[in-house]
Amino acid sequence: MATDVQVPALGESITEGTLAQWLKKPGEAVAMDEAIASLETDKVTVEVPSPVAGVLAEQLVKEGDTVAVGALIARIDEGALAAAATPAQSAAEATTNPAGAGETPALRGDDHAPVAAGPEHDDGITTLSPAVRRAVLEYHVDPTRIRGTGKDGRLTKDDVIAAAEAQKSGTALPSPPAKAGAQTEAKASPATPPSAPAPRAAADTGERKEERVKMSRIRQTIAKRLKEAQNTAAMLTTFNDVDMTAVIEARARYKDLFEKKHGIRLGFMGFFVKACALAAKDVPAVNASLDGEDIVYHDYLDVSVAVSAPKGLVVPVVRNADRMSFAEIEKTIADFGKRAKEGTLGMEEMQGGTFTISNGGVFGSLLSTPIINPPQSAVLGMHRIEERPVVKDGQIVARPMMYLALSYDHRLVDGREAVTFLVRAKEAIEDPTRLLIDL
Fold first, then answer.
1. Are 285 and 429 within one domain?
2. Can you tell me whether residue 64 is helix, strand or coil?
3. Are 154 and 265 contained in the same domain?
4. CA–CA distance, 333 with 267 (Å, rounded to integer)
5. Spatial CB neighbours of 274, under 8 Å, sequence gap ≥ 6
6. Which residues of 156-188 are buried (b: 16+ CB within 10 A; e: fewer)?
7. Which residues are catalytic?
8. Is 343 a residue whose pLDDT tops 70?
9. 99 in a domain, yes or no?
10. What is the pLDDT of residues 30-70, one digit of tens each?
């Protein structure tokens, strides 16, 4: 009996998505609730689970197709579970891979491991799907040195992840196998002096290549929202710098005790979230939003924290951050970062937010002008810490300094309010005791 697989509900106001990758091939056995495909929506990647145990009978849409919620995308044959691996298939697998039982389909330790190649390629260069290409870039592996387990020897995302894990554990990437033609030529020319320069390949003439890749739905949404913010808001950015000496000393003094008690490292974000919560009490407009002709003031601080994901930045929300402890803030942000890389953040976790903090310093940024996240009225940009000469008590001394940038919507926030907010945050960072006594 065949069971239909439909696109699940994708969240409020989301009616369609893009089938990013098939995780199972026709004829493969699947367990109940096992993911058979991944869908890209405007905000997150969602896995489509199998409603029953059986065998994937057919795929009804292709990778890259746009599918609506409730659309039929595949069929599962429940009665074919026992026949998933036929004797003929087992014999074929034994013939093609007699020593491969239990082998990880990634890196091979021998020099003759076949390189994954598409059916139209015989030069070891794989035609990669968008999902696999993103995985290759994220995990920094050489796709030409990975054994592909997909159809026609193509790479899958699992192949890339397995290769990255093997590489991390110290397994060396094998050199790609030499072409048969090259081996023959080498044998036919034994008299070529070892020091003679290799003949220049005919194709090595400065060939220029281009690759056209369709924007993911998440990237399209990011582009649309950022441009909308530029077109709608009256954006302006004000800057200040902050001496990080006190925070660095506090972290150095208490980091071991903090981690032992709470099971999480004491980072910088906890200090900045707390500092912004304190500053927002003095300047509530920075934590407000526009709704038509009304200004909505919030007596809570829901902080959207920009974290890096394989498909771009996402902004999950730390709710009621003003009422959270340092440990709760650090644990929440660490969990967001981990799940953003795994693609398991829920859409409800990225909705809302009254204020945004973006830490470009983790990527080495010295200074930037961040764009606000509508309908919010402001975003704080953090940057890298570097020692710079400053004057303290009439003496020039080196201090660990960070530039802060506050971009704000001038329709809601006046310049004086923006500067005041940034100064309050600076004061709290330079003297963390203010965070304890609410000053």
1. yes
2. coil
3. no
4. 10
5. 326, 329, 428, 435
6. bbbbbebbbebbeeeeeebebbeeeeeeeeeee
7. 410, 414
8. yes
9. no
10. 888 888 888 887 667 778 888 888 899 889 888 888 888 88
